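Sample 1 of the test manifest.
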Amino acid sequence: MFRVNENFAKLPGSYLFATIAKKVAEYKEAHPESEIIRLGIGDVTQPIAPAIIEAMHKAVDEMGRAETFRGYAPEQGYDFLREVIAKNDFQARGCDISADEIFVSDGAKCDSGNIQELFSADSVIAVCDPVYPVYVDSNVMAGRSGQYNAESGRFDRIVYMPCREENGFLPELPKERADIIYLCFPNNPTGEAIGKEELQKWVDYANEHGSVIIYDAAYEAYISEDGIPHSIYECEGAKTCAIELRSFSKKAGFTGVRLGFSVIPKELKCGDASLNAMWFRRQGSKYNGTPYIVQRAGEAVYSPEGSRQVSEQIARYMKNAGTILNGLKGLGYTAYGGVNSPYIWLKTPAGMKSWDFFDFLLDKANVVGTPGAGFGPSGEGYFRLTAFGTYENSLKALDRIARI
Amino acid sequence: MFRVNENFAKLPGSYLFATIAKKVAEYKEAHPESEIIRLGIGDVTQPIAPAIIEAMHKAVDEMGRAETFRGYAPEQGYDFLREVIAKNDFQARGCDISADEIFVSDGAKCDSGNIQELFSADSVIAVCDPVYPVYVDSNVMAGRSGQYNAESGRFDRIVYMPCREENGFLPELPKERADIIYLCFPNNPTGEAIGKEELQKWVDYANEHGSVIIYDAAYEAYISEDGIPHSIYECEGAKTCAIELRSFSKKAGFTGVRLGFSVIPKELKCGDASLNAMWFRRQGSKYNGTPYIVQRAGEAVYSPEGSRQVSEQIARYMKNAGTILNGLKGLGYTAYGGVNSPYIWLKTPAGMKSWDFFDFLLDKANVVGTPGAGFGPSGEGYFRLTAFGTYENSLKALDRIARI
């Protein structure tokens, strides 16, 4: 009899956002009259910008004519997109990254789930706590986690790096072995960013200890302050120790369009094994390229018009972020994030548990957020709200919270 | 120091089609005047059908308006697409498959590469020989292959099922343990189909021995003869032993649009572990849904207009297939396939090695095909041509082959 991958059974419960969706659906069924404001899952609400829509229509037309039809795309992405990414996102910031170090994909979630395939089965991974669940879940499925301890809420072979109020939500360098270190800045879920000097310490640590940093910069476009690196390659030595993941989901509202990319520098090696060459082989064997139409949409994000339009969208979301952050503070809440990211990370009132606060807020204010505990044990007592709603709904949510 | 996944080093050379692309590019550089006809990689050439183009334009417009904008799609696909698939591809053929057993994806290559994640690390896999490289390569990367033996061209922990002229290109039931059996019919690369009675023997074997069949039906739309099953679920008992993979790449020319799906029946279990539930979890954690625009394109494939238009495209490719098959036979070649599939599988003349024939054909006729040996040792001495070119080029290729 065939046997299944037994590591799946170690995963506690279902995927976080699936649980939330289910709870909200149940509440809605019990209270059909309720008008729910969703500030839970990090999904955008503004439509795709006009310049990008135009580029997609053009690409659709090309697909409908024999002379311009495109079949299989290169697995690593079309040159037209890789080049504009290398130039705008890296070279323009002084990062020496070339087009052949960029691998276009259908989004950072897939990449952040798949990237662990490059590493040995016994690698020790280190994650921030709280953390985006995909890093942990994909390593659990691959058998690197050890056993789950329900009491601590932790896997016994994973190194957890707590990020709480006490350390300004910045992890401390691991004291134990950590082969693969996942960092996400600006952070999901805390919304806090990391300064360049602080990030340089991680790069130095990784080079010294032979660790690889998986740097998830999905929220880079929301950085508003100086001194916050947009890419880990702004740090010296990062090309020998870091992979960077990027997403168009939050930058240009592509959550339903699906586009992202990974940067794997050619200098990143373990002995003779080049991670760039391995990922090229992995994608060549298990991925079949990002849709042509979507890659043209991505290209349009960098056009003068597209670039201006997505900046305006981000500014609108950041207005929401400021409104929620300051509104909550005005109501006496302790809240973080919201300055260099679209997430507000608030302390639950009176030490309420995260999931209790979720139920409380859903019931009393019809507002959906994400319980901090869903991101890891150190998220207990915290709660994430997103700035991705409309301005009107952000105000309305605040108003309802004020009336509780 | 971090360590890489050492299984990658076991993969011999690069991905087959990458090697071919490189060889052709080199030839083209050395002979810039040559006009090369590409009948190698199975990529389509006809543009996307008008009804599908229209549906995509409509979906693009929806993405550009706040009222109709769609963010994250359900990871398992939108209901509108899953339902039309269940109805048309399965229920209409008497297969009791429901929408919640269908998981929409960005293509069968990803699914066929990822599906092995559901099984235990020590599972023994069985593959036809010759075979589509992804089944083997994804299991090599996951550590199930054992060592590669350069002399035999085989991995020592994989069960190979030769498909050659002697057995009518149909594999024999394995005599040794085989937990996961990959079958592809109509077959890539041989182009041969399997009859329903013959396939029933595999389903019975799998149920009896506790094996799972991964049934790749990517070329189902090319079946022209009666008595050839379009789905493995036409066989009794398949729901307790088989996963089916489907693609829109060849059915509707979606190689650059990217759409496919997997069928995992709820009855398919190992003890309490439901493979349907595990894949739901896997996709929820590591996949972020197929683009909305692409799912609407898929829906249009089933509309009366779309359905008629893609049938016409397939008829055009099958006219090429018949022309190439009969043309080669007329020239004295022994050739197979081409009746229920877009692939023609020919024996190289005078026992020439596959790669020698590749070079010979490229040089003497400027025609690119795929060396049979690239699909496995039993493909040695064979060569694959595809019917996906234009009719004009199919004739021209034949004419050039005739003049060699």
